[in-house]
Amino acid sequence: MMITKEKVLVFVAFLATLPLANWLIGNIGTTCIPNGPCLIPVGFGLMAPSGVLVIGLALVLRDWLQELTNWKWSALAVGLGAVVSWLTADPFIAVASALAFFTAEMFDLAVYTPLRKSGRHLAVLVSGVVGAVIDSMLFVYVAFGSLEFSLGTAVGKIYASFVVSAYLFWRFRNASRV
Prior knowledge:
By secondary structure, the chain is mainly α. The chain has six helices and three strands, in the order H-E-E-E-H-H-H-H-H.
């Protein structure tokens, strides 16, 4: 497999989402809970830790990396991402971030791989929803001892998967008309 700029860029962008998400959770939000997360509204009256802004992107970048390379490179990126998360997170979220990220991304990988044959738009959406729900429940519970923000966190992450899935569906549909 030839290494290209695009592959390296997606790999590095994927790894960068973790420290950025961890930093956002502790520093940026409309409401910051003392010794807890900074929160943002995600719609439907729900709030989520602000890292949700980039973790949804991480789920999509992992899928993109797999399209550019293979599942082995994606699995390597997930493992390295968990290590980066562990090394860069504030202590109160370090374990939660690494555990949730690794587990959710491996589920995303396991769902995305067989579904790609049915269409990338479907694979991105379904694997993104699965990854978002698992990541949200694990992260929020382990980091904050509650599932209070899990639904909002999942909704925020699913936005990225939905947007990319819709784009891929539109692109495939329009390409088949030519």
